[in-house]
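Exercise (ungraded).
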Amino acid sequence: MTDDAVDYDSDVEAAIRESRPALITYITAGDPTLEDTKAYVEALDRGGSDLIELGLPFSEPIAEGPTIQAAINRALEAGTTPRGFFELVDELETDAPLLVMTYYNLILQYGSEPDVRPFVERAAEAGLSGIIVPDLPAEEADPLREACDDYGLDLVFIIAPTTEGERLETIMSQVSGFAYVQARLGTTGARANVSTATHDSLARLSGYDVPKAVGFGVSKGDHAAEIVEAGADGVIVGSALVDIIASSDDPADAVAELEATATELKRGARRGATDDTEDDTNAEDAPEPEQP
Amino acid sequence: MSTGERERDESGSGRTGTFGDYGGQYVPEALMPALQELEDAYERFVLENEDGFMDEFRERMHDFGGRPTPLQRADRLSERYDREIYLKREDLVHGGAHKLNNALGQVLLAKYMGKERIIAETGAGQHGTATAMAAAHLDMPCEIYMGRTDVNRQRPNVYRMRMNGAEVNPVDAGSATLKEAINETMRDWATTVERTHYVIGSVVGPHPFPKMVRDFQSVIGEEIREQVREMAGRLPDSVVACAGGGSNTMGTFHAFVPDCADPRFADDSSGRRPRDDSVNLYAVEAGGSSLEVDEEAGLAPNSATLSTGTDGVLHGAMTKLLQSGDGQIVESHSVSAGLDYAGVGPELSHLVETGRVTPVSVDDDDALNGFHRLSRLEGIIPALESSHALGYLERAAGTAADAASGDGPRDERHDELGELVVVNVSGRGDKDLETVLEETEKRDLEAAPDVEVFDR
Ligand SMILES: Cc1ncc(COP(=O)(O)O)c(C=O)c1O
């Protein structure tokens, strides 16, 4: 963290703190086209997402499991580029703040020579509130963090089940927006149950007063409830939503189902916060989770 | 650095695990503690020989691996090019390639670290084979990821891996070659990192892999130094090695990097001085069918990363890459599976950027000619990867007959190559016979025998 870091109001942190428990949704931009993505994002927004992550597809998505990897391939085949992505974001008007999730090389290459600034500048201009980079650990993040500070964007860091001790402290002291708690080792992908690693991670983080959201494997309302009950301020759902897009023949069906699923997930998260069981009825409506 | 004492850049940039602008650790957070653990183990066991690690490694490389390998004077090549040509015979290492130097080192290190399982990626299959052999030798379970295209063109090695008890997992994504195999191995590692060691097969990936793999491979250049002094009484004018990821390249070059008139490359600790008579270092890349990139198709019909690539981040390191203007990695191509990769080691990128290493390339045809020429003239069937280095010899030196007839060398670097040249024969070509027959039939190659007689 630079000493001269600019103080700015974090839309991301505010969105989570105000809506606690928060629902954070992810889809891949350009899957199957950027036009469809616009309708899908609006559906997730109507469904009660408190933050929306948009994946900007990179050809080597080493942190993704099969579901999002396939979505990224569809988006790249449809000709999705960083420029097209930003044009989509220019057009979007959502209640939920938007974050971009992408890999470091795309950020570096946005300008005429390798440099993170042109990307961050364009992201700020398009109205994005933050950036998540799964292949950029805190050790390599100084240049991007400085640029994000200058343009008032959050740079979200991932806390893995293996992040402990001194590294955990260092990263937590630099958290901006929220701490993205990776629920289990491995890649993204919907799972049938909540990992015990989630509970351990949340317990390890309980002493830090920063918003914590759990992702990697969350697919239904019951998971959301369990995770919030374990102490998370938010849940992050990606592959389960990408599955809906991949399996719908008609974009209109996908729009309806995305909105309904977001609503259901948000309800599940609330249930975890109040420990109120009256809302239980919809728990089984969630899509079939993909087995790891 | 935010996380305690970390090793400094070898070229003084102040960042950790870097070579000038290149290198670093660009990996998912889940892997960072494992990289720290590995860095720690590398420093203790490899650099400081704790618990006699390096002694055991050297002993096993001798008894199991067959080191040292010969430096052989190639009589007929010397005659052809009218200068002294020496071949470093890494094809004689157990398994048939230099890859065992690194695989045995890393599997042994994993054992010292208390890891329970080995995973690796492979392109030509030579690294997979070496890893499977080392794992069997040291009694560790082993899984290998290999692109489907490479499974199909390197079948003998797939069998060998299976024979040695390894699981082979074909990868279908993209062009199904080395790049995709690395992605898939990283995914496995991110899931099982606590008990698994990922044996990266070249001087690529996040720190400390590029340095550690180079150190395990640097035995090649150290032996050459000693052997060439004994045989020729002096250091070579040029050293030539093929470059895919660059592990045989760095292994061959490392001991010669200080032998340079430029004081930046002087290595005081070795007691060597910058010399006026530098040893020239040539990294020979796969020129494939053309050096042009088809951005629209996301395809480079070559894998000449050092010659044509641009700076970016792939597979954990900042290095030179074959990429589109947007930063998407493009598919590479080479007739040789082991060179077919869109990235290259960060240290090589640095040495090229600073002018110490000269990147050159030869195309598929020249490599195939190099393959046939060495087979016919010297009785050594080289790997298609190594054939690129041999192909370059022909291009740069021309033949003595050409020179006599006034046609001269085919490359302006004739004089730079000098009178005494060492070429690293990184591996043997048994694995490539199917590909060579198939590709030779399609072409009119000057050095090829009549392949039609083969009953296929
Ligand atoms: C015989 C041989 N030489 C060279 C290579 C290229 O790798 P590197 O550039 O790391 O030496 C390979 C890769 O499989 C190989 O099998």
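Further reading is listed at the end of the chapter. For now, observe: Residues B 97, 99, 123-124, 126-127, 202, 242-249, 338-339, 383, 385-386, 426-427 surround pyridoxal-5'-phosphate (CB under 6 Å). Chain A touches chain B through 45 residues (CB under 8 Å).
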